[in-house]
Automatic annotation (TrEMBL):
Residues 16-310 form the Beta-lactamase-related domain. The keyword Ubl conjugation does not apply. The keyword Hydrolase applies. Keywords: Hydrolase. It comes from the Bacteria. Its EC number is 3.-.-.-. One of its GO terms (molecular function) is hydrolase activity. It comes from Streptomyces gamaensis. It is an enzyme of class 3 (hydrolase). Pfam families: Beta-lactamase (PF00144). This is Serine hydrolase domain-containing protein.
């Protein structure tokens, strides 16, 4: 794989803010590589933060392919508690157009009093989430504006789990993780993982009891490589519903004003030389992650680091740039 694999790793390690564990996995055509720095190995688990949403998107699409839910279902149809205000659909939640705030009411104040610097979501329970939902009114009419919402993504996970009659981690494992062979990937903070750091200080494992579908997933470079490879070739999935879902999450759902960008099911889409580039990133108090792929060139990259994002961090942007460089080299090789 050109540029040299070690240069990919060196570039991302340099942008990681002093991470002691960095793992990078890349796909370019038929070539694959998993590269590790420091305390990381191919199977080392990293907190992926909001990359969790891309797995939740796949779960939604898989259940829609089975006919168990519909994208235009009101979320209240699949929750045990009422949802006040105008109808919010599952698609609204998966495209950040629900109008819900970024965080549930009450979470921020509780986090500032407690674990803001380590685990801001840890003391916010499912009962707190239900109470917050009763007190919430959308900031705008659902479907009219994009407003990033961890609250909405978390609600989507609960709605899917309630529709299936089990909890989110179990449902995700049965429908997505086990069929794709992702043995390192789940929401369990008790399994071994890399030690996260924020501003140079060790952080405890990330705990998100009320919003696991938004940001609780852990994964490894080798599992993320398998996940991205499946997205590049949906036909390789083991079931018809998963094959349909892997393609469906990549379909643009709305256009973002004045940018040319599109929103898929949680995936961000940017046109690159007339071709779609899909990407997402994530962060917790101790970890930063980036994943992206270009389905038409068969190019993908995931980068994981055990340092939390800061205002000066360039890890995510560097991951995006490295992915673009890999794609450019792919086209040069094909043109040559």
């Amino acid at each position: 794989m050109t540029p040299r694999p070690t240069s990919l790793l060196d570039t991302l390690t340099a942008a990681s803010g002093g991470a002691s564990a960095v793992a990078v996995a890349a796909v370019r055509g038929g070539e694959r590589a998993v590269l590790c720095h420091g305390a990381a190995g191919p199977g080392t688990r990293f907190e992926t933060g909001s990359l969790t949403k891309t797995f939740t998107a796949l779960l939604l699409a898989e259940m829609a392919a089975r006919g168990e839910v519909r994208y235009d279902d009101p979320v209240g149809r699949h929750l045990p508690c009422p949802v006040p205000g105008p109808p919010i659909t599952l698609l609204h939640l998966a495209t950040h157009t629900s109008g819900l705030p970024r965080l549930p009411p009450g979470l921020l104040a509780r986090a500032v009093r407690g674990g803001w610097y380590s685990n801001p979501y840890a003391d916010f329970s499912l009962d707190d989430l239900k109470d917050a939902l009763r007190r919430t009114r959308p900031h705008h009419r659902p479907g009219t504006r994009v407003r990033y919402s961890n609250f909405g993504a978390g609600l989507l996970g609960h709605a899917l789990a309630h529709a299936a009659g089990c909890d989110y981690p179990q449902l995700l494992a049965e429908r997505v993780l086990l069929p794709l062979g992702l043995a390192d990937t789940d929401c369990d903070p008790g399994r071994p993982q890399a030690l996260g750091h924020w501003h140079g200080r060790p952080r405890p494992p990330w705990v998100v009891p009320a919003l696991p579908a938004a940001m609780a997933l852990r994964s490894s470079a080798r599992d993320m490589l398998a996940f991205l490879t499946a997205l590049l070739d949906p036909r390789s999935a083991p079931s018809p519903s998963l094959r349909t879902a892997l393609a469906d999450v990549q379909r643009p759902r709305l256009a973002l004003p004045r940018s040319g960008h599109r929103m898929c099911l949680f995936w961000n889409l940017r046109p690159r030389a007339g071709r779609p580039l899909l990407h997402h990133s994530g962060g917790t108090r101790g970890f930063t992650s980036f994943a992206g792929f270009l389905p038409r060139s068969g190019t993908a990259l995931v980068a994981l680091a055990n340092t939390g994002p800061t205002r000066l961090s360039s890890f995510v942007q560097t991951g995006y740039e490295v992915l673009c460089e890999l794609d450019l080299l792919t086209h040069r090789r094909h043109d040559g």
